[in-house]
Amino acid sequence: MTPPSSSPGSAGLAGVSSTGPSGILIVSGTGTSVGKTVVTAAIAGLASAAGKSVAVVKPAQTGVDPASPQDSDVPDADVITRLSGVTDTHELARFPDPLSPEAAARRSGRPPLDIEAAADYIAKLAAERDLVLVEGAGGLLVRYDPDGRTLADLAIALASGGPGTGRDPAVAVLIVAAAGLGTLNHTALTTEALRARRLPCAGVVIGSWPRDPGLADRENLADLPVAAGTALAGVLPAGAGGLSPAEFLATARRSLTPALGGTRT
Q1: Do the beta carbons of residue 28 and residue 190 sit within 8 Å?
Q2: Is the dihedral of CA 125, 50, 139, 104 positive or negative?
Q3: What is the pTM of this model?
Q4: Which of 140, 137, 152, 226 is nearest to 184 (CA)?
């Protein structure tokens, strides 16, 4: 089933405009397996098709083991390149176990992601690109190191300062959420965490709209923006990641609002 077109307007969202996003857009989920990679690929593909220079960064890739590859061991950056055609991708750390970045680093005996170094790396990319997309691992507050630093801390570092200081409006966080039961609470908690840290939110995207949506899915189209306190910026259909690049780009265009480079109203 094609996702219905009935979302609130996206005017005024942080880090986005009628010509699509620019600067640094951090893509976080409300949890795992909600469609972050496909949403990241959709935004990257639309921005690239519009003539923008785009880079994609995966600060910490988990669950991919080059020593004993499985059919499912495809790095997110490779998926994004296949779907969007964007080849300017950057993976800063990789750990074989499908765990949080902190736990995966600990089990592998490798050092965890260095948040400060990652922020510096991403900032340098952003100085030379129109758009840098940063895809997180799991949810916003998943731990990246033993000190408990998270994707939110990376966002704060990129936004130039700690809590209570001025921030660069070109840094914003996009939330990818599920469609069904439980998503209202998860999304509200995530956007509340952003507000507590004074991090701009670029809206919410449903990452996988079911082919046969139930009552909760349909009602959540109206309820998600209310729970989140921000606009519904897109709804991508389930299975979009299995499309050809041309079909994927067309799907991305009609599934995302103009704020993210699409045409959805």
Answers
A1: yes
A2: negative
A3: 0.90
A4: 226
Rounded Cα distance, 177 and 160, in Å: 27
* Token pair listed for 134: 């940063």
Name the token pair of 115: 């948040």
| DSSP codes joined into one string, 27-86 | EEESSSSSSHHHHHHHHHHHHHHTT--EEEEES-EES--TTS--TT---HHHHHHHHH--
What letter represents residue 7's amino acid?
S
pLDDT in tens, the chain (265 residues): 556 654 444 334 555 555 789 999 999 999 999 999 999 999 999 999 999 999 999 999 999 976 655 555 789 999 999 999 999 999 999 999 999 999 999 999 999 999 999 999 999 999 999 999 999 999 999 999 999 999 999 999 999 643 333 434 489 999 999 999 999 999 999 999 999 999 999 999 999 999 999 999 999 999 999 999 999 999 999 999 999 999 999 999 999 999 999 999 9
User: Which residues are marked as active site?
Assistant: 58
Q: Which CATH class is domain 23-62+72-179+186-256?
A: alpha beta
* CB proximity list for 128: less than 8 A, separation 6 or greater: 53
DSSP state of 134: E
